[in-house]
Amino acid sequence: MRLLSILKYIVSHPLIRKNKTGGILRFIKWQLTFRFSPYPILYPFTKKSTLVINKGMTGATGNLYCGLHEFADMGFLLHFLRPDDLFVDIGANVGSYTVLASAHVGAKSISFEPVPRTFSYLIRNIAVNDINVQVQVYNMALGAQKGTIAFTSDLDTANHVAIAGDQATIEVSVDTLDAFLAEEERTILIKIDVEGFETEVMNGADSTLLNKSLQAIIIELNGSGERYGYSENAIQRKLEQAGFMCYAYDPFNRELTKSIGPGAHNSIYIRDVDMVKERLAGADFVEILNERF
Questions:
Q1: Helix axis angle, 71-80 relative to 273-282, nearest 10°?
Q2: Residue from 246, 240, 250, 279 nearest 263 by CA
Q3: 3-state secondary structure 198-238
Q4: Is 82 left (phi over 0), alpha (psi -120 to 50) or beta?
Q5: 123-142: burial string, b at 16+ Cβ within 10 Å, e else
Q6: Number of compact structural domains in the chain
């Protein structure tokens, strides 16, 4: 079943719409590579960035199969950010978004990843791209208050704040986003992907949301907050009260379409849509897998 879902994902991906066979062959090639070699590979992510990928890295191998694992959201980041901007990556995992922001675009990044092993992969990707000066990294989680919290450690991109019954858990430090960004006035884009703990991250970000430099938030609202008893409708209300509205993005046409709310995956919330549209329209083109957008 997992194989079928991966193949369905590949053949429906926008970046291989003109070459589905090539996408399938790329999948087979890398499956064979990982099966017979224990070593990571150096993957040319974009023309300006690289990813080191190990076997079993779900999100990173999604980039390898299809160019950009999360096409709309990554395309938005690539078109929206500029070198003088500050991007905050919450739940950075191995660093796909951080690498795009700081290696390809040249922006500054602050990245948070709580799982030590995954954090080591994030550090490795920062080093390989020679962006140490541009990126601040923190091996910790973000939430509503300072302290510690139990976290799963063996689920790759699905690692999350632990609940009853979770195995292989570790204790990680946690602090608020407001504590880290109190002196920052340049934050323009935040990505939050914390497997259902988004409510707690937002509860520790009241001052950050009031910062007028912040123009866009990419956030995963797919119902996983229910495992902690959270309604993600409350997050949408909080964002709307702070002046953000939900949009879908088409990187090929550089079009934003207003949405009634979150869908099955990530959602993009925007404050000043006219400013954002101007940036998107004026961005340099990106070419990945022979697709230019």
A1: 90
A2: 246
A3: HHHHHHCCHHHHHCCCCCEEEEECCCHHHHHCCCHHHHHHH
A4: beta
A5: bbbbebbebeebbebbbbbb
A6: 1
Judge contact between 256 and 280, C-beta under 8 A: yes
Q: Which amino acid is at 282?
A: G
The parts of the chain modelled with pLDDT lower than 50 are 1
Domain extent at residue 160: 2-292
Residues in the chain: 293
Distance CA 66, CA 22 (A): 10
Q: What CATH number is associated with residue 149? A: 3.40.50.150
Rounded distance between C-alpha atoms, residue 208 and residue 185, angstroms: 9
**DSSP string over the chain:** -HHHHHHHHHHT-GGGTT-HHHHHHHHHHHHHHHHH--S-EEEEEETTEEEEE-TT-HHHHHHHHHS-TTHHHHHHHHHH--TT-EEEEES-TT-HHHHIIIIII--EEEEE---HHHHHHHHHHHHHTT-TTTEEEESSEE-SSSEEEEEE-SSGGG--B--TT--SEEEEEEE-HHHHHTT---EEEEEE--TT-HHHHHHT-HHHHH-TT--EEEEE-SSGGGGGT--HHHHHHHHHHTT-EEEEEETTTTEEEE-SS--SSEEEEES-HHHHHHHHHHSPP-EETTEE-
Q: Phi, psi at residue 219, to the nearest 5°? A: -140, 140
Distance CA 225, CA 229 (A): 7
